[in-house]
Write a structure and sequence with these properties.
The complex is a heterodimer of chains A (about 300) and B (about 250). With about 300 residues, chain A is an all-alpha fold. Chain A is about 75% helix and about 0% strand. In chain A, strands 1-2 form a two-stranded antiparallel sheet. Classes of the chains: A mainly alpha (about 300), B alpha/beta (about 250).
């Protein structure tokens, strides 16, 4: 228990690090971390019902394009667009979920992979709306209460707030009756259903929630980066999110947070050794899988066996 | 009053294999109804079809005056058919109390939009724990309990959905003689004190003959006989199909 507070302290200290080190580039990396943490958490939510989703990058893309286009084409206020983009991703999940989630395990993972590829293809090919591979330029800045987000710091602060909201929401969920239901469905679905639980409805609910989080993160990303192209939302991003959950520890809500903090800056440290970047990435993953099986979070939390 | 359960011409085929073939029977309210037959006779498959885990290939099931053919297993559970499994099925790494809490919450919040009736659930699971005799084991981890107690926990969890009918798949398998007697007592108490009708698959003949009002005998997926225990004991078809000439009904 006490050690969890140590982890919180370390995360809080790391969150203030950009101001200590300073520099626009450091703030950029930090902002990307605050965008990836909610995405890693959105995948974690699906893992809580025992399903591996490879659709999170697609939901991020739907949120990003949706939010940016609502503002650029329909003059929605940017902040409203961010949440509307999240709702768009959630609505997509609500429509696809009842079909997708009849299928479980490896097949669900493959299905969400195919879904991600199709969504990405739509971004590439529907050029009149999404701008194709040349993307969308000239995206305006976010603003809140009339204050325009003019520097990276503003986005970083906003990202931190969203991370905190997602983290607290998932922690409360985990401790609530719903957390108990998810755990039961994940451990033994046949038993849970024999006790009356509508497993499909609960899995769809988790899918919709995870798409909402991913979609909002996408909207923040779109307005922050100021340029959208399909290759920001490929299958490989979904893979990165899995890596963050594995490295951080998927059994805990804190795990994906630690994973994102560790994985997102990694390429920046390896910039000098560009040729070896993938190799080192792979070696790091192997080290984690072998030595710290249940992730960084086990350094701070004692997990129940099994 | 109408029958509690009507099984009409139920068949289940897996590819070319017919596991259950044209089974029909009815259960009255408050009845303890046994299903016996050699291994592979299709008893558990029949259970799985009634409980909605498998879709029937032909035939139908009416429960409590409602045609439940084709309903999902969770919908059937919510209508009031509880079940226990042949193998122990509890959440092994959790405590007895947590298992019962889960059973309670899974039923009460059966889907994300289900209304939360804040019933005195804590009292309810304690009452169930003491009914099945696990009142003193609430903090024990389910997987560490003796086999017989884990089976009792499975019954307790099924009780929390407040079933009208409980399907019990070999409740006495793997129990020692005194535990078997207790299982028989528990089955009777479920019916007599709580009014739960019981559909029972069991290999332990003394137990079946003792507690059941009527017995269905199955062999190779088909019905061999359906009668009271005393008649079943005398039925030559049953003895041929299952019990053997020298069977002793101790």
């Amino acid at each position: 228990m006490r050690k969890t507070y140590l982890a919180y302290l370390i995360v809080a200290a790391l969150a203030t690090l950009p101001w200590v080190v300073g520099g626009r580039y450091v703030f950029h990396v930090a902002t990307m971390i605050t965008i990836m943490i909610p995405l890693a958490l959105s995948l974690n939510l699906m893992l809580k019902v025992g399903q591996l989703s490879l659709a999170q990058a697609a939901f991020m893309g739907i949120g990003a394009y949706g939010a940016v286009l609502l503002t650029m084409r329909l003059d929605f206020p940017p902040m409203l667009s961010v949440f509307a983009g999240g709702l768009l991703a959630a609505a997509t999940a609500a429509i696809c979920g009842p079909v997708f989630l009849r299928i479980k395990g490896v097949y669900f993972a493959l299905l969400t992979f195919a879904f991600g590829q199709i969504v990405n293809l739509v971004f590439q090919e529907w050029t009149s709306l999404f701008g194709g591979n040349s993307g969308i330029y000239g995206i305006p800045k976010l603003s809140v209460f009339g204050m325009r987000f003019s520097t990276t710091q503003h986005y970083y602060l906003f990202g931190l707030v969203f991370c905190a909201v997602c983290y607290v929401a998932l922690r409360l969920l985990e401790r609530s009756e719903i957390g108990r239901i998810f755990q039961a469905l994940k451990e033994d679905e046949t038993l849970s259903r024999s006790l009356g639980s509508n497993a499909l409805a609960w899995r769809v609910a988790a899918f919709v929630g995870s798409a909402l989080i991913a979609g909002i993160a996408g909207g923040i990303y779109g307005f922050y980066i100021g340029f959208l192209s399909p290759d920001a939302f490929t299958f490989w991003l979904s893979v990165d999110l899995i890596v963050m959950n594995v490295v951080g520890g998927a059994t805990s809500v804190l795990g994906p947070v630690l994973g994102a903090i560790f994985i997102v800056p990694l390429p920046e440290f390896l910039r000098e050794a560009r040729a070896f970047q993938l190799l080192i990435y792979g070696v790091v993953l192997i080290i984690f899988l072998v030595l710290i099986k249940d992730g960084l979070v086990t350094l701070f939390e004692r997990r129940k066996p099994g | 009053m109408k029958n509690l359960l009507d099984v009409r011409g139920l068949s289940k085929r897996f590819g070319g294999l017919t596991a259950v073939s044209d089974i029909s029977f009815s259960m009255k309210r408050g009845e303890i109804f046994g299903i016996i037959g050699p291994n592979g006779a299709g008893k558990t498959t029949l259970f799985n079809v009634i409980a909605g885990q498998h879709k029937a290939s032909a035939g139908g099931v009416t429960f409590d005056e409602r045609d439940i053919s084709g309903y999902s297993s969770d919908a059937i559970a919510r209508l009031g058919i509880g079940r226990t499994f042949q193998a122990v099925t509890v959440f092994k790494s959790e405590t007895v109390a947590e298992n019962l809490r889960r059973a309670n919450v899974l039923r009460r919040r059966h889907n994300p939009l289900a209304v939360r009736s804040a019933a005195a659930s804590e009292d309810r699971f304690r009452a169930v724990a003491s009914f099945i005799g696990l009142g003193d084991h609430l903090d024990g981890v389910a997987g560490d309990l003796a086999y017989g107690l884990q089976k009792l926990l499975g019954v307790g969890m099924a009780m929390l959905i407040e079933p009208k009918l409980l399907l019990m798949d070999e409740p006495a398998a793997g129990l020692n003689p005194s535990e078997k007697r207790e299982a028989g007592t528990l089955i009777r108490r479920l019916r007599d004190e709580l009014g739960i009708s019981i559909l029972l698959i069991e290999h332990d003949m003394p137990l079946v003959m003792d507690v059941c009002d009527r017995i269905l005998v199955m062999s190779q997926g088909a019905k061999v006989a359906l009668d009271t225990p005393s008649e079943i004991k005398r039925d030559s078809r049953v003895i041929d199909a299952y019990l053997g000439d020298d069977y002793d009904f101790a």
